[in-house]
Amino acid sequence: MSMTDPAQGVLQGSVTQQENQQEGRRRWRPQWTARMALIPAMAITIFCFYGFIIWTFVISLTRSRLLPVYKFTGFDQYARLFANERWWTAMGNLAIHGFLFIGGCIVFGYLLAILIDRGVKAEGLYRTVFMLPLSMSFIVTGVIWQWVMNPGLGLQEAVRALGWAGFEFNWIVRPDRSIYTLAIAGIWQQVGLCMALFLAGLRNIDPNIWKAARVDGIPVWRVYLHIITPMMRAVFFTVFILMSAIVMKAFDLVVALTGGGPGFSSDLPARFIVDHILNRQELGLGAAGAFVLLCTVIAVIAPYIYFELQKERSGRGH
């Protein structure tokens, strides 16, 4: 070995170190650029979302009516809210509507996706028909179903004109049934979206699963029930979150379809809040209702999200 070999080794190590540093800088610059680009969006989100949550809670502790008044009265507005019978009616309706709407969208959306996935003819036509209601707003959906459910000129009158004089479908004017009309109209509009999400998940299933099932002679329904459905857990999770968000902020469908009536039998928390803030000039009470509704959303959805994330992490660990 010559005397110059150690010097060459040191020089080569120095060059390699410089190259590594330059490579690190090249990798760091795009990451830093991306982070800088996200700062405006992050600032807007923090200000418009979290900032207004804090502001809503602050207003709920005041006597604010038409305009904000920062004279704090503790939790008086919450005491008024919990003593309000209409609020508890709206919360009960929210539970009923949420269970029926979310459950109906998941069940019917999944069944429609399975039927289309089985290779039905004119698949494009069926997908278009089921997706078409999604292009309408909830206001339009409410108006359409208000006509359909109107006892004097809708479905009831049409069936009676065919000879079934005793047929009744007057749920929209019955206090004990009006909340179910919201679920029917909501499912009709959103089932197409659920179907599309489930269909996308089904189309990503490995075809070898079906080949193995046919070889083993497993019935199709058992394959869907015991094999495919567990593999679709992530899609079910996505559909549940999307439909839950729609339920919690449901307002325009109630206004267009039932107006919260008869009486307040189909009232929902979002309509209660908007009505008290805009029509009754009860800003503090409406803010208290909004904050309680937010806490309800967190209490219902957060455990499910935590459970799903834990299952995903444990799956990656294995």
TrEMBL record:
Residues 91-306 form the ABC transmembrane type-1 domain. It is found in: Cell membrane. Residues 1-21 have a biased composition (Polar residues). Residues 1-28 are annotated as: Disordered. Keywords: Cell membrane, Membrane, Transmembrane, Transmembrane helix, Transport. The chain crosses the membrane at residues 36-58, 94-116, 128-148, 179-202, 223-247, 285-307. It is a multi-pass membrane protein. InterPro entries: ABC_transporter_permease (IPR051393), MetI-like (IPR000515), MetI-like_sf (IPR035906). Belongs to the binding-protein-dependent transport system permease family. PANTHER family: ABC TRANSPORTER PERMEASE PROTEIN (PTHR30193). This is Sugar ABC transporter permease.
